[in-house]
Amino acid sequence: MPSPGPRTAPWSELTAHATRLGTVATHELFARDPGRFERFSREGAGILMDFSRQHLDEMVLAKLDELAEAVGLREYREAMWRGEKINATEGRAVLHVALRQPAGARIGGTEIAREVFEERERMLTFAENVRSGRILGSSGKPFNRVVNIGIGGSDLGPAMAVRALHPYTLDAPRCEFVSNVDGNRLSDILKDADPRSTLFIVSSKTFTTLETLTNARTARAWLRDKLGEEAVREHFAAVSVNHRAMDEFGVHPEHRFKMWDWVGGRYSMWSSIGVSLAIAIGREGFLAFLAGGHEMDEHFRTAHWHENLPALMGLIGVWNINFQMLPTLAVLPYDERLGRLPAYLQQLEMESNGKSVSLEGRRVEWQTAAVIWGEPGNNAQHSFFQLLHQGTPRAALDLLLPAKSSCDHQAQQDLAIANCLAQAEAFMAGLPADAVRADLERAQLPPERIEALTPHKVHPGSRPSTLIAFPRLDPGTLGRLVALYEHKVFTQGVIWGINSFDQWGVELGKKLAEQLAPSVRDPDGAPAASAGVAKVIARLAGWRAQP
Ligand code: F6P
């Protein structure tokens, strides 16, 4: 097994390059090489990735290429495609790429390919039947409202995609998403939902997730009260590996869709977990989404590292995290409809690579996943860009930018483009004191005012950003973007020598919550887990008891 990145020669040489570049401002790199855009931008699978404003040069890029080879990225990639159990701690293959393979391909082998096609057809037929009204509720009405009940990977992907592809959903039932256990979202939906035309989809790979089962049971009780127990079969669908649980819940056998243990939850929106998306955008839209993902797969599988967008994105991320010491990445889409992309990427990146123990079972001595956060870029300009420009913490930035408006207001999208590119330039170049002073002198401020104000108006610059631009936000492009980030995450996991596909860190909290629930319900009855918690529970119970 190849060594993790930090134990390879290219890694030590990258440390020296970071020192070499440490005293150089990024705008200086542009001054030295005006052709940076040509040298540090790539197009692949319909996406332009402009990383010319990253704090690197040709020597760093060449060394990052060597790093990819040194960690065996090629071998690990091929092992994933062959269906080897690279999710070592769970003894599972990792084959989300098989979910989006085209007809005739055999990714994962003949049996897996057959199952994927069969299940895809079943799911798409169901989605089209819901859309067309061939499938009806118990009272004979078609469904005009679909409520997906799930959380994490059984929610974030479809929810993000339905919003991102809103223009493609206008002739479909309204698709909504319920996830948190507090019940507020579900309560808001049930207040004005017509039970006769509402379909619930319980999405849960395990069908044991507390939040999902709690919300599903509440929805089930509501429907039973409105339409009777026998209506459950017609008004619930489910996606899971757990057939026994679906039996117990009473899900119609024809309204059940398969999951496989070789698909991680955060990689599952390509499977029947995406049934709400398929209902929203239809068969053709969903197939275009899959095709976009597959196109990016083929690019990642075949392009050389220095042309390979996902590999480059992963390598540059390692450069920023491990050599530029930037522990967070802000994802800033300049398209309101990608507003939930940062949340989706939080699970994809941080549940995959938020690890501190290596594949060898030893605590790592290097940083791993960055904290992922973000907002639509234009909003962010009016909320946290002050910190990004002049604050003490520094962040790496991903700016996502469609060329075409998806609401026929191109003049407004052009303003979004201008803002996005202006911010990228400002983050890179900053505004030095002499330029600030010149501006203030042109404004004819008195000298003492100029001296007082100048330090406050200086922008340090050298904030690294990557621009990810594409023609328009359509199903194919969204598939390419999601697969781009999936393979970026894979690349980084290989470099850090960690397992990107398990998630042991989510178990402890769930277990403690189960232990605490009885004492929250009945503070005097059940013993609280700890004195500190008992006092809080008692105080909350006091408030809860008040009218
Ligand atoms: O957050 C833990 C987790 O297991 C995620 O990995 C998963 O996407 C989510 O919970 C939901 O799990 P399930 O689909 O089994 O309900």
Poorly predicted spans: none
Strand-residue fraction?
A: 5-15%
Would you tell me the structural class of the helices and strands? alpha/beta
What is the helix tally?
23
Q: What value does the Rg take, in angstroms?
A: 25 Å
Q: What small-molecule ligands were found? A: 6-O-phosphono-beta-D-fructofuranose
Can you give the mean pLDDT?
A: 97
Tell me the domain tally: 3
Named CATH topology of the largest domain: Rossmann fold
Tell me the major beta sheet: 6 strands, mixed
CATH architecture of the largest domain: 3-Layer(aba) Sandwich
Number of separate strands: 11
CATH homologous superfamily title of the largest domain: Glucose-6-phosphate isomerase like protein, domain 1
Q: Helicity range of the residues?
A: 40-55%
Shape: globular
Key features of this structure:
about 550 residues; alpha/beta; Rossmann fold; 6-stranded mixed beta sheet; 5-stranded parallel beta sheet; 23 helices; about 50% helix; about 10% strand; binds 6-O-phosphono-beta-D-fructofuranose
Can you give a write-up of this model?
Helix 1 runs antiparallel to helix 4. The chain is globular. It contains 23 helices and 11 strands. The mean pLDDT is 97. The N and C termini lie far apart (64 Å). Helix 8 links the parallel strand 3 and strand 4. It folds into 3 domains: 229 residues, Glucose-6-phosphate isomerase like protein, domain 1 (Rossmann fold); 187 residues, Rossmann fold (3-Layer(aba) Sandwich), CATH 3.40.50.10490; 39 residues. The longest helix is centred in the middle third of the chain and has 28 residues. The chain has a 6-stranded mixed sheet, sandwiched between helices. A 5-stranded parallel sheet has the order 4-3-5-6-7, sandwiched between helices. By secondary structure, it is α/β, with parallel strands linked by helices. Bound molecules: 6-O-phosphono-beta-D-fructofuranose (F6P).
